[in-house]
Amino acid sequence: MNAISNTAAVAFPVPYASDQRGVITPAVQAHKTATRRRLALGRAIPFGALIGPAFLLVIWSIGSIAGLIDPRTLPAPWSVVGTAIDLLAEGKLQNHLMTSAWRAAQGLAFGVLIGTTLALISGLSRLGEAIVDGPIQIKRAIPTLALIPLLMLWFGIGEGMKVTTIALAVLIPIYIQTHSSLRSIDSRYVELAQTLRMGYGEFIREVILPGALPGFFLGLRLAVTYAWLSLVVVEQVNATSGIGYMIDLARNYGQTDIVIVGLVVYALLGLGCDGIVRLFQERSLSWRRTLAD
């Protein structure tokens, strides 16, 4: 795919004047660079992802200091930090965090594995699509959380139900995005593979799978988010540990600060996992040139 992209780039005529030897002059090259920068997004802002959360934190702090926010409704940031420190000192937050992370990891692993496998079966075969795609679309139309009563009847109210719920929520975005990318491979790459006399296995390995990676990573980012969203709910169903259990217990006792601590932990876990996926995405797709580059 890189070779095709490079060939296409060379094939375009240069829309600027050059000297008689066909070499672009420095002035023309500078003009081209300036035009490219003006049309692109510009340089990345250092720590730009932290600007939005920092702005919300500032508004929250100002509202608390000015008395505009009732501390019984939303405690001040420093109160939440103090509560988090106390929970860490007691060891409660670490224990709940480890339990939640293990549940999310299991559900995410099973969901990604099943979703990717089904996407490959459906995306690379008409017969596979006829068998797989219909049930997946039916599941897509049914909210995963609406299946919890049925899953409780099938798997009980233990860990199996919780992990299964997360896996079902995860496999849908993985399947949809990967399947869409598999079916969106440019037909010119197929023609090139035929010209190079590639075998079917080599064609899948060198063309199809690299072409489907952008969709897979997009689905993985959504899957990570869905995993944590599902975890919030399932940990409030007959759980004895986990961040969701801690939040539910704090709600019963009116401990708003602990509820906020739990929500902040969920947010940090979600952002951290998304950042890890984006890092792998940048490394795996370093051959692409996009508007963000």
CA(first)-CA(last) distance? 18 Å
Proportion of strand residues: under 5%
Mean pLDDT: 81
Helix content: over 70%
Task: Note the overall shape.
Answer: globular
Largest sheet, in brief, is: none
Report the radius of gyration as a whole number of Å. 25 Å
Number of strands: 0
Count of separate DSSP helical elements: 12
N-to-C series of helices and strands = HHHHHHHHHHHH
Ranges where pLDDT stays below 50 over 5 or more residues in a row are: 2-20
Structural class: mainly alpha
Word description of this protein:
By secondary structure, the chain is mostly helical. Helices cover 74% and strands 0% of the residues. It is built from twelve helices and no strands. It has helices spanning 2-11, 26-39, 51-65, 77-90, 92-123, 126-141, 148-155, 159-183, 187-195, 200-234, 243-252, 256-284. Helix 8 runs antiparallel to helix 10 (200-234) and helix 11 packs antiparallel against helix 12 (256-284). The longest helix has 35 residues, at 200-234. It is globular and about 70 Å long. The two termini are 18 Å apart. 25% of the residues are buried. Residues 2-20 have low confidence and may be disordered.
State the main characteristics.
74% helix; disordered N terminus; mainly alpha; 0% strand; 293 residues; globular; single chain
Helices and strands in order:
Elements: H1 2-11, H2 26-39, H3 51-65, H4 77-90, H5 92-123, H6 126-141, H7 148-155, H8 159-183, H9 187-195, H10 200-234, H11 243-252, H12 256-284
Helix pairs in contact: 4-12, 5-6, 5-8, 5-10, 5-11, 7-8, 8-10, 10-12, 11-12
